[in-house]
């Protein structure tokens, strides 16, 4: 079970069968349908989530009710409200499903336990966090670039799979352009 | 020497005198004057930098020559081009000094060495990276918020020290507003 999670971890750190079985025993599974919420603003956040199947979005809702998309997550990505998760606080964002989703769920307590017990897994999470940091820097540079055409092409370069799969309305919102501008950029 | 670095690490993980001396022996020092570059686009990036004294900015230059500010760093913060650092590649951003700076410099090789040798320091960098990730999420939410007044107030709440110290032109650029709008927002 969950060969994919093992492959995901082993991209960074090798594991024995026993280690992987032990690690996996600290995860729970969760299934959600399209449009269901994983996290709502104000929820106490206990868990990080690795996407086994599906597509989700994390977003903030402005006072005018508009969704501001923080990140997407598809297979092999992790998603939660990290501010709430690491500080053991309440969510300031929403996360819901764009497609039906199957998740592997890891509590902060179990994560810290695994990191203290297995050097390799501490190393894995340390490196994942570094790469997550880089991805967010890319997102910021994308947002700071004032040229919509360049923003679109950069995203196409960074995440071609994601771009193919996203509903156009969400893609436009992520790029901070109108639906009409997006049609022009991508020549649908 | 560098009581501050020890305090900085010990906010997360306790260290013995011997451990700290050993860790410190893996750092070099670097002094830069105001306006000097720490990193220029295309440089091979070997090092991360902890700010002992001073104020720096990391930015991307658009094709039109405009600076897009990615982050600032003052005392107790870390700064480098993390994409280049973790991937052992070349810089895609510039980092220069807003004020004279004294830095403690850590190569990726020494960082990995220390993380493999001392569990506490691996733990420290893992947690720092988590908090860095959160700070970038905050920056993204700031950029996604279309209301300049709210962006200003949010930054005031998150980093009051930074806000006091930044030249107004850079602050306006960071917030993505004009110098005139900033004056109105902050009632200078």
UniProtKB/TrEMBL annotation, chains A, B:
MF-aspect GO terms: kinase activity
Pfam families: cNMP_binding
Organism: Pseudarcicella hirudinis
Keywords recorded for this protein, A-Z: Kinase, Transferase
InterPro entries linked to this entry: cNMP-bd_dom, cNMP-bd_dom_sf, RmlC-like_jellyroll
Signal peptide: none
Lineage, opening ranks: Bacteria, Pseudomonadati, Bacteroidota, Cytophagia, Cytophagales
Protein name per UniProt: cAMP-binding domain of CRP or a regulatory subunit of cAMP-dependent protein kinases
Keyword Kinase annotated: yes
Ranges for domain Cyclic nucleotide-binding: 30-116
């Amino acid at each position: 079970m969950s060969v994919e999670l093992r492959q995901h971890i082993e991209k960074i750190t090798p594991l024995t069968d026993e280690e992987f079985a032990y690690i996996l025993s600290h995860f729970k599974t969760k299934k959600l349908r399209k449009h269901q919420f994983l996290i709502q603003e104000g929820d106490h956040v206990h868990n990080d989530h690795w996407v086994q199947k599906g597509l989700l979005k994390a977003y903030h809702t402005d006072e005018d009710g508009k969704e501001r998309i923080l990140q997407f997550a598809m297979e092999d990505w992790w998603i939660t409200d990290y501010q709430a998760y690491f500080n053991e606080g309440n969510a300031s964002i929403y996360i819901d499903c764009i497609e039906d989703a199957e998740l592997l769920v890891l509590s902060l307590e179990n994560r810290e336990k695994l990191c203290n017990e297995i050097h390799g897994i501490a190393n894995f999470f340390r490196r994942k966090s570094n790469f997550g940091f880089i991805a967010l820097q890319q997102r910021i540079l994308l947002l700071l670039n004032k040229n919509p055409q360049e923003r679109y092409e950069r995203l196409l370069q960074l995440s071609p799979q994601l771009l193919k799969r996203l509903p156009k309305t969400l893609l436009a919102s992520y790029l901070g352009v109108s639906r009409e501008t997006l049609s022009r950029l991508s020549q649908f």
